[in-house]
Amino acid sequence: MWSYEQRLQYPVKISKTCPKTAQFIMSQYGGPDGEMAASMRYLSQRYTMPYKQVGGLLTDIGTEELAHMEIICAIVYQLTRNLTPEEVKAAGFDAYYIDHTAGIWPTAAAGVPFNACEFQSKGDAVTDLVEDMAAEQKARSTYDNILRMVTDPEVRDPIKFLRAREVVHFQRFGEALEMTKDRLNGQNYYFFNPEFDKQFCKQK
Amino acid sequence: MEHQNLAIPSVPMQEWKDTYAPEKALAEGTIFPELNKPFFMAPEDSNPVLAKMGDDPHMRFSQVCFALDDALLYLDTHPDDVRAKEFYETCLQRKKELLGEAKCGCDCATHYQWEKKPLVWEGGHC
Q1: For residue A116, is it within any domain?
Q2: Is there a domain that residue B98 lies in?
């Protein structure tokens, strides 16, 4: 069960419209390393995690990622509000405009629509946690790339916040992997899959 | 708890140390100075959006909620950390006080009054 709080985790207040910037920031909504993929990945993986604490962490980070999705969408929305057809054409936003007008729709910067193949839920605790660590790094790299391209301080401000969260989440998934290793055989972490071969599992 | 072995990643477990004040934490994106690793292309230390929001009860509410978000994830992987639990309890108490002061949209009593409040994605806050 989730409940909605009427606030953003980090505020977004952009005064200057810029559909060009919106076009690539949109990737952090529906792109391969975006916030939607992150949230769906963690919230999908948690069900079969063999250790309650790790399933709990996936729930809490997956929930925070929903709030980040909302921040990204607010940025895209504010960058494209009150657009004129001339601005749409001049900024190269016309291909998106034809299909979605100024509506918010999850897609990658290069135009590939969001799809579930962008993340994995493998049903193996070590595999999934290593994927989660990689996912945080990929999102961090994307925010680095955005910070190279965007000059508007009002856009950079919330982007810097979101980038900082990737680093913290990476640390937490690393710790979750340590907690998982703690319950496995240090001589061979790959002897069995703790998410499936339950006869070997020890809960702490 | 760390296990350094071949053929699997290792990350050191973080230890609880001093944390940023809530307003600094929101500006930096973490309560933990040791996890604050900024990008060289973002050297600015100003937060124009936070500056524009000012220092009202809504922002103080957001700051304390963010400190709770970050401390919660730490507690998820360190559930027995006494100092972290104390920090979390203190922030929870502060959140309750601010909710009373701010009378913001995070208060369920006015949740449905959408027409009376600016929407969050329009730059509104509570």
Answers
A1: yes
A2: yes
Of A101, A111, A104, the residue nearest A74 (C-alpha) = A104
List pLDDT tens digits, range B20-64. 999 999 999 999 999 999 999 998 778 999 999 888 888 999 999
Which residues in chain A are closer than 8 Å to B11, comparing Cβ atoms?
A: 133, 171, 174-175, 177-178
What residues make up the domain containing A106? 19-183
Closest chain A C-alpha to B68 CA, distance in angstroms: 11
Q: Which of residues 14-33 of B touch A (CB under 8 A)?
A: 14, 26, 28-30, 32
Q: What is the CATH number of the domain that holds A157?
A: 1.20.1260.10
**A-chain residue closest to B34, CA distance:** A168
Domain assignment present for A167: yes
- Is residue B109 situated within a structural domain? no
Q: Which member of A74, A130, A164 has the closest CB to residue B9? A: A130
Whether the CB-CB separation of A46 and A67 falls below 8 Å is answered with: no
For chain B, give the number of residues: 126
Domain count for chain B, please give it.
1
According to DSSP, residue A112 is labeled P
Whether A15 contacts chain B with CB within 8 A = no
The ipTM assigned to this model is 0.96
User: Range of B80's domain?
Assistant: 16-33+51-104+117-126
Number of domains into which chain A is organized: 1
- The DSSP line for A144-194 is HHHHHH---HHHHHHHHHHHHHHHHHHHHHHHHHHHHHHTS-TT-TTSS-T
Span A35-91, pLDDT tens digits: 999 999 999 999 999 999 999 999 999 999 999 999 999 999 999 999 999 999 999
